[in-house]
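Need tokens for this chain, all 359 residues.
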Amino acid sequence: MFLRLLALSLIVWLAAGAAEAQNKAAQPRPVSTRGALDAEEMNNIVVFKRASPSVVHITTLSVQRDFFSLRTSEQPSGTGTGFVWDADGHIVTNFHVIQGGDRATVTLHDQSSYPARLVGAFPDRDIAVLRIEAPVTKLPAIAVGTSRDLQVGQKVYAIGNPFGLDQTLTTGIVSALNREIESVTRRTIKGAIQTDAAINPGNSGGPLLDSAGRLIGVNTSIYSPSGASAGIGFAIPVDEVNRIVPRLIRDGRFIRPALGVTAGPENLSRALGAPKGVLLVDVGNGSPAAAAGLKAFGRDRSGRIVQGDVITAVDGQAVADLDDMLSLLETRQIGERVTLTVWRSGQTRKVVATLGSSD
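Here are the structure tokens for all 359 residues:
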């Protein structure tokens, strides 16, 4: 009898101990104390808090008509990112973000949405400017930096709306400078910034920032077979953006300064033994090139080649082809004088031309 009571007491004691251990295990673990955030973490937080109110989400809509009922409806056609350029409501983004859409909606940092109208676009550089009517207090303009003094290895931040999600911050470094990428018009965008900061679908048009939180580029594309970030992203340098955007706001389009010439294909240059440059096959009557005395290649009545001019440099900067020359002329203003290095029949000379309008 005594042994039975002893065994029963032992069972009760063990059960109580097990219950106590189980209750203890079910309690939350005590929180470990940590020190202060390090300097890099603090800067990440500061940059995001400072810049994110200037970053917007862009949704484009397209009108679709039912084949049978002929009813029309608006369907989302794409999403992207943009940022506030100024207190007048101008929003900068990539042209390909809004391409093909019939209208666009801009959602601000506080989740308020506004219809946007297109102010102007320059597809050759994949830049577009929208405008919304919103209170000035909701339009903090992003701080603008420069891309002129960027160095490989310096830290960068990308803010965007990947996959239509709310704002996301990714970090990385400048991986390379002076890259070349292709625009939607197949024109080459020179001087692009390469970064390993993750840039996913939906990040297009968003800002690339330096460690001071200043805009240094506009995220525009990724190089990836799957379309997802693979560590190679590209951004249009801010100096290019800061040159183009004011013209789009002023004129509604980018009017390129021009010489009024037509260039021949590269194989023609090789066939004629001409140097690398812009081989002229036509010089417009009354054009700046004609006023400067430039002459196009042609044929005489007997069919023999008449030597013309090849532009090999603009203001001392070599041009290998028409794309090179157009890129250089885009940095100039209509009415500005440029010095052209010109080759003809083995002789090189310099001439001065006053740039006209491409219109």
